[in-house]
Amino acid sequence: PEAVGLLGLPGPDDLAMFEGALLTLMPPQEAADYRAAKAQFAETLGFGVEELLGAVGPELLLVMDQAGSYAAARLRDPSAYARILDRLVGGAKLVHERREVLGQTYHHLQIPPLAPRLPDEVARPADDALARRLTELPGHLYWTREGDYLLFAMPHVLLDYRYLTDKRSL
Questions:
Q1: How distant is the alpha carbon of residue 54 from its chain centre?
Q2: C-alpha–C-alpha distance, residues 121 and 143, integer Å
Q3: pLDDT, tens only, 93-118
Q4: Is the bond leading into 112 cis (omega within 30 degrees of zero)?
Q5: Rounded to 5 degrees, what are φ and ψ at 125?
Q6: Which tens digits make up the pLDDT trace of 42-98?
Q7: 7-43: buried (b, 16+ CB within 10 Å) or exposed (e) per residue?
């Protein structure tokens, strides 16, 4: 590896403890807005923040090596990850493709454009054609699994990762 960054993700219990402390310090309207945003997240995606943190973490790595740059997220609970993916694809009607290449499964998730879900004045700024166009484009997420980790990157980086002969455990 040429460079590695590590971010520790909280678990569901850590989040509850943090929220308990934070919400007592917030003004009532901000606390209500926070709770509403969490509820909207769960309603939109089909799973809550706590469930996501129960499935993924505690490590989130950013790695740069001969293959390129990629993120690696440890799975706390692989079965919870599978349930979240099923709900995300089924509930949000996202396009999810799996491809087998040289015995390895690669995933592609197409994320719909952000613009239809944002208010017009936010989603389509009249004076910024580039920002307007970017909010109208779908997003794409690519990943594969390596042991206890999900590796997220562009497809060519994920394929190049397979061909690395000098892999070192981080």
A1: 14
A2: 33
A3: 788 999 999 899 999 999 877 554 54
A4: no
A5: -60, 125
A6: 887 888 999 999 999 999 999 999 999 999 999 999 999 999 999 888 877 788 999
A7: eebebbeebeeebeeeeeeeeeeeeeeeeeeeeeeee
